[in-house]
């Protein structure tokens, strides 16, 4: 079969050259469309379950929330490992599935299990699935700070303006805000006033809870028309909370402001953040595992540029705290530099030893064609361009050029020997090339097979190391 392929190539040289050029063009386009990353995504399909157990101690969270969820998830189909963490008022369970499991199918399996366990959890405790992300998913930190606004105003802008705009960018999985003061409407009840007015603490709590509602009062029919009647009760300001009625002893209404001080203040701060030693709010942007980091970063930069124009005067948006795209670009540039420098050295050495420009060009042509074929294989198996794959290509250049040099050098030598023979004993050039190729093909194939055998054990390694090297 190899003999037949060699004959076809020699007899249809123009077609082979045109096909090679088309392969380079199409391969270049495919390479430009491929995902680029620092390392391959080594995250096993993981479903994260987060449960807010407000007010519970870590021991209670572990016993009443985390353990029942773990027990239900452990028996799910395809589950490889379950990990968890219980802190004050929060339970986090990580459910890892076997490699290759479709993440959406995994989430469906977990969701079905949660429906069964939700009945046995404490009242008001509802487990939710966190957005899909990966260990390489945190691609950018964005800081928001101001010298003229309070941390509460900065936090409000970060949560309700910047975060919502970033979540609307395709490919963004989650945006987590860190630091700042969360705005809170605080009702500080005075026990002496409660006693004076003869109302209880529960009455005040129920009054505040029930004051923030809009409700429907049905339809009024008049003159052949229907009028929708609504009760507007949603709170719009701090003073609205103070106007809520607690009770009406002896017909005189007791308002919330009569028994408590109502004000807007910061909630208890569980974490903090700063940018350039100044208090700030930092937004951590996480991407979907299938999103292209470089393309997503460009879209985020465009969105942040638009957001910057709409921010209140005095607020500063810091976009250069951390950008995974910078590390990716630097790593790719370094590897590409090594590949180019290696290619130049190979060309110089081939030209020096062969002493023929045409033979050098033919030998070097094997490099881009082989690497482009590797890109097609990577595309087929959904492998990203990263430092591992580019490093593998850099190593492979030596093997590729070695085979090409052996072929070309043998053909070049046989053609020289043929040209030195007397005219009657000379053979046609194509026959000499064909015979020279057959002569060297066996040793080249054997040498290549030996190299393949040397690298074969890598494919049988297990765990993270095996996936990384494969």
How many helical stretches?
15
The global form is elongated
Could you tell me how far the N terminus lies from the C terminus, measured between alpha carbons in angstroms?
Answer: 30 Å
Give the rounded overall mean pLDDT. Answer: 84
Helix content: 40-55%
- What radius of gyration results from the CA coordinates? 35 Å
Largest sheet: 4 strands, antiparallel
Number of strands: 16
Contiguous runs where pLDDT drops below 50 for at least 5 residues: none
What class would the helix/strand composition place it in? alpha+beta
Order of strands in the sheet with most strands = 2-3-1-4
Oligomer: single chain
How much of the sequence lies in strands comes to 15-25%
What does this structure look like?
With about 475 residues, the chain is an alpha+beta fold. It contains 15 helices and 16 strands. It has a four-stranded antiparallel beta sheet. A hairpin with a 2-residue loop joins β2 and β3 (about 90-95). α1 (about 1-10) packs across α14 and α5 packs across α10. It is elongated and about 130 Å long. The mean pLDDT is about 85.
């Amino acid at each position: 079969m190899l003999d037949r392929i060699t004959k076809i190539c020699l007899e249809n040289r123009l077609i082979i050259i045109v096909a090679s050029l088309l392969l380079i063009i199409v391969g270049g386009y495919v390479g430009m469309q491929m995902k680029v990353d620092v390392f391959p995504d080594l995250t096993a399909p993981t479903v994260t379950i987060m449960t807010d157990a407000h007010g519970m101690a870590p021991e209670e969270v572990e016993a009443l929330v985390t353990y029942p969820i773990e027990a239900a998830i452990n028996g799910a189909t395809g589950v490889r490992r379950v990990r968890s963490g219980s802190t004050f008022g929060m339970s986090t369970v990580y459910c890892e599935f076997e490699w290759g499991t479709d993440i959406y199918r995994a989430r469906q399996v977990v969701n079905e299990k949660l429906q069964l366990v939700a009945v046995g959890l404490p009242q008001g405790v509802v487990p939710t699935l966190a957005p899909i992300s990966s260990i390489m998913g945190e691609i950018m930190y964005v800081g928001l700070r101001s010298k003229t606004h309070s941390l509460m105003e900065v936090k409000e802008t970060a949560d309700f303006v910047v975060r919502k705009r970033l979540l609307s960018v395709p490919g963004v999985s989650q945006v987590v805000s860190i630091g700042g003061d969360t705005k809170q409407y605080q009702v500080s009840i005075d026990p002496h006033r409660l006693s004076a007015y003869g109302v209880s603490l529960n009455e005040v709590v129920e009054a505040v809870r029930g004051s923030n509602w809009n409700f429907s009062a049905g339809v009024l029919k008049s003159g052949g028309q229907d009028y929708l009647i609504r009760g507007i009760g949603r709170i719009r300001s701090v003073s609205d909370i103070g106007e809520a009625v607690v009770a009406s002893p002896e017909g005189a209404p007791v308002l919330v402001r009569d028994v408590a001080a109502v004000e807007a203040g910061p909630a208890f701060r569980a974490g903090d953040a700063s940018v350039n030693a100044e208090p700030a709010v930092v937004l951590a942007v996480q991407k979907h595992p299938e999103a292209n980091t470089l393309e997503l970063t460009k879209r985020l930069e465009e969105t942040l540029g638009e957001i910057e124009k709409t921010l209140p005067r005095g607020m500063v948006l810091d976009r250069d705290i951390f950008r995974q795209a910078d590390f990716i670009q630097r790593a790719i540039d370094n590897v590409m530099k090594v590949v180019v420098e290696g290619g130049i050295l190979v060309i110089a050495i081939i030209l020096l030893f062969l002493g023929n420009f045409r033979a050098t060009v033919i030998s070097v042509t094997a490099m881009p064609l082989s690497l482009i074929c590797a890109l097609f294989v990577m595309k087929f198996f959904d492998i990203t361009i990263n430092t591992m794959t580019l490093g593998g290509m850099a190593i492979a250049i030596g093997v590729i050029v070695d085979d090409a040099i052996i072929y070309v050098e043998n053909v070049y030598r046989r053609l020289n020997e043929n040209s030195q023979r007397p005219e009657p004993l000379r053979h046609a050039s194509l026959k000499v090339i064909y015979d020279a190729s057959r002569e060297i093909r066996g040793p080249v194939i054997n040498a290549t097979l030996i190299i393949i055998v040397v690298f074969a054990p890598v494919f049988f390694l297990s765990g993270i190391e095996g996936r990384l090297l494969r």
